[in-house]
Amino acid sequence: MVIALLLGMVVVRMDISARRESFLVQARTMHAALSRHAAQHDAMLATLALLGPDKRSGARVPAIYPQILAALRRDSGGWEQPGLEAAEAISRQARRPEPAGFNPLNRRYFLVLAADPTSHALHIDVGQLIGAGDWPIGNDPAMQIHLVHHSEHMVLQRGLPDPLQPFGLTEGFVFEKQLHSTSQPFTLRILRPTGPADWPWRWLAAIGIAMGVLVAAVKTGIDNWRARQRAESLLRIGQVARLNTLGELAGGM
């Protein structure tokens, strides 16, 4: 029993280690993909700023990139969307794009670049950053994926709500890292609850059965050996008894 428990512990630890490594590989892949998209947004705005007065260039962007809902520009006057003027002022001072207008429910935000004579902005849909065929996490309904910016949380995948988690699932694997972008310093946070419900119970059951068969075989072997020992002892006792009887008969004669 003790050996079976020790083997089971080793199997569980190996399984957890393998699943954690797989989780980290997927999380790093997603982090790299989102970082590339953030750099791509900066490049789009820089290109639009270089093209300047060409209004047709911004109109083509949403048709090429599905995550871009609209490419906006401000030639004179103010922005129609609230919050973009403040972002433009920060962008002009920092000389880089500045995010604004976060909408966690719709998973959308604006990215503004101040430039002369025309400032530009992209309206970005976070839910379209990675296509369904390129999703590196896989189809794991328990995975919770958030993009965090200060106090704003944009949910890429909700995962299982706590009341619906299978028995034994707890907070297990966590990946949290900021994207490689100075203009869009989002933190990617991925959580994969895990626990006894995810253990390799088939392997553990196989180990238990194997150990049970082994113990039964050993016990059967020991019982057979003891039976042979008793039979041999009885045989020797019978032989000694016959010899004693012969000796008594011989003495009597």
Structure overview:
This protein is α+β, with helices and mostly antiparallel strands. Helix content is 49%, strand content 22%. Strand 5 and strand 6 form a beta hairpin. Helix 1 runs antiparallel to helix 4. The longest helix is centred in the C-terminal third of the chain and has 52 residues. The mean pLDDT is 82.
How far apart are the first and last residues' alpha carbons, in Å?
Answer: 63 Å
Q: Which outline best applies?
A: rod-shaped
Helix content: 40-55%
- SS content category: alpha+beta
The Cα radius of gyration reads 36 Å
Poorly predicted regions = none
Residue-averaged pLDDT: 82
Secondary-structure blueprint:
Elements: H1 2-51, H2 55-64, E1 68-74, H3 84-94, E2 98-103, E3 108-113, E4 119-125, E5 144-149, E6 152-157, E7 170-178, E8 187-194, H4 201-252
Antiparallel strand pairs: 1-4, 2-3, 3-4, 5-6, 5-8, 7-8
In a nutshell, what does this entry contain?
The protein has 253 residues and is α+β, with helices and mostly antiparallel strands. It contains four helices and eight strands.
Which features would summarize this protein structure in a list?
single chain, about 250 residues, alpha+beta, 4-stranded antiparallel β-sheet, 8 strands, rod-shaped
